[in-house]
UniProtKB/TrEMBL annotation:
Domain Nitroreductase: start-end pairs: 27-173
SUPFAM superfamilies, per database record: FMN-dependent nitroreductase-like (SSF55469)
Protein's recorded name: Nitroreductase
Organism: Microbacterium wangchenii
Ranges of compositional bias, category Basic and acidic residues: 176-187, 207-219
Amino acid sequence: MTLPEPSSPAEAATGTPERGGSALEAVRARRSWSRVTDEAPTRSELEALVSAAGRVADHSSLRPWRLIELRGADRERLGRAIHKALGQDGSSTKPLRAPLLVAIVVSYRKSDKVPRWEQEAVAAGVAHTLSLLLDEAGWGVIWRTGHYTRSKAVAKAHGLGKDEALLGWLYVGGKPDTERGGPRKGVDAAAHLTPMPGKSSRGSKKNAADAAKDESTAL
């Protein structure tokens, strides 16, 4: 498969796809925004995007995740919890960098088929998909963590249960007109996409073709 040609002169000049296209274009256009304005999506706008983000691959449909919305004074409470986790007085100003924070929580479900690491992957998938959807909707987003993310003080501030853990926060706000998102270097796909080591895969293709032929004969 070959990537599509730039869809417009602007894309050809800047390397940034224009909005309103395919999922591929939306992913290629994504950037992290460390600085955002005080604007933020409404609760109803956020719910619509969360509903879509929840359609990620989810083994056994466990839905081992939930999101916590932090606005206004909620961010100050988180700032106090961060400083408590660090053994410091006062309140951290880090949560005030955006008007909306979305805490990503993995809620572990009991399952003989789906291990905890796989449930964490589902929660992370929801968070990443939500960040893409927010970016496509015109919002600036960055996923932030920290060594205090799994601290007791921060967990208590979020009301986490004993079978829950925090994966960080999406910091969400408006995109400043005077700034651009962080730079993204292109990915060398060949360096990250490799064949299975060992014997050539040509034999396996023949076996797959034979299996398909046998199946069609059986039908």
